[in-house]
Amino acid sequence: MKTISIRLPEQYIHDIEEACKQEVLDKGTMLRKLIGDALREYWIKKAFQSYAEGKVSLWKAARMAGITYRGALEELKKRNIPFRYEKEDLDADIKWAMK
Fold first, then answer.
1. Burial of 63 (0-12, 13-18, 19+ CB in 10 A)
2. Rounded (5°) CA angle 66-67-72
3. Which of 8, 40, 65, 91 could bridge across to 47 with cysteines, CB 3.0–4.6 Å?
4. No. of H helices and E strands in the chain?
């Protein structure tokens, strides 16, 4: 692991200290948890933004987000993003099923 230093507003420091008390964690562990959660959410958000814009398939969005296809379907529902299933998708699924 590497060490990094950053400047944070007093309110963030207060909120982090409160979260540490709630979770009974030290600051380093809490910050790693918060940053990890925020990064996971960032990648999921970017992946599903690309999916919603039609830039990637749902399979690709799932891979980008680091989740399963089933998890991706759940994310669509959670984020109110419509599921796209076009004729090319149906053709590919039929071709795959006929193998």
1. middle
2. 130
3. 65
4. 5, 0
Q: Which residues have a Cβ under 8 Å from the Cβ of 60 and sit 6 or more positions away?
A: 47, 50, 51
59, two tokens: 């399979």
Spatial contact of 73 and 58, defined as CB atoms under 8 Å apart: yes
CA distance linking residue 51 with residue 68, whole number of Å:
15
Tens-digit pLDDT profile for residues 37-95 = 999 999 999 999 999 999 998 999 999 999 999 999 999 999 999 998 888 878 888 98
Quote the CA–CA distance of 36 and 18 in Å, as a whole number: 18
